Amino acid sequence: MSNPIYLALDLPRLDAATALAQKVKGHVGGLKLGLEFFCAHGHHGVHEIAKIGLPIFLDLKLHDIPNTVAAAMQAIHVLEPAIVTVHAAGGRAMLEDAKAAAGEHTKVVAVTVLTSLDDADLARQGIAGTAHDQALRLAELAQEAGLDGIVCSGHEVGAVHRQWKNGYFVVPGLRPADGASAADQKRIVTPRAARDAGASVLVIGRPISRAADPVAAARAIEATL
Ligand SMILES: O=C(O)c1cc(=O)[nH]c(=O)n1[C@@H]1O[C@H](COP(=O)(O)O)[C@@H](O)[C@H]1O
Questions:
Q1: Model ipTM?
Q2: Atom of ligand 1 nearest to the CA of 210
Q3: Which end of the chain is more exposed for a tag (fewer CB within 10 A), N or C?
Q4: Superfamily for 5-224?
Q5: Which residue puts its alpha carbon closest to atom 5 of ligand 1?
């Protein structure tokens, strides 16, 4: 089985991101480049990280009117990302158009409820019910729109997996059992628990990137899976 860990390269400097990826590349299955990286380094930065030879997950969390999201998807075609994120809350037409505009080898996955939000945050946005129920509703929308899968927390992935057997499930908000800081994450589980519940991809950033020894941290997490 291939390594399901995607390292989130949330570092402001390209040289530091490249050095970290080079160091841990034998212990992760892919590299995730998000908003911080893409806004700073754009296509050039993605090309540089792609040279390392691991699949690239472009986490842009696109969320706009369908025409704009489709055009953005076309503009990143050339980067041949393995995975791209959009926000499920953009609605069915946006999701359908995003998928139609993506390259045939790119998995388009929809972010349901960010792992940094809890039930109280949703209530403040006027969303009744739990983060769990909202994630399930948005997963159903993504499935109906023909996406490849979703992003959700490890608390929901088991339930989503039961209703979407062949879906592709990306799970961030992961913290090893040895007590790495949750920081801004509110719905967290261990990498192993997420894997056991049906996650296809485990997104891990700071528990590796901010560790005193990132290689040892990545190896330790890999060993729990
Ligand atoms: O789409 C994501 O990857 C994502 C969705 C989500 O709900 N929560 C979330 O944390 N992420 C990303 O996953 C990574 C988690 O980083 P750490 O908390 O440092 O492990 C960050 O790059 C986030 O942008």
A1: 0.99
A2: 19
A3: N
A4: Aldolase class I (3.20.20.70)
A5: 114
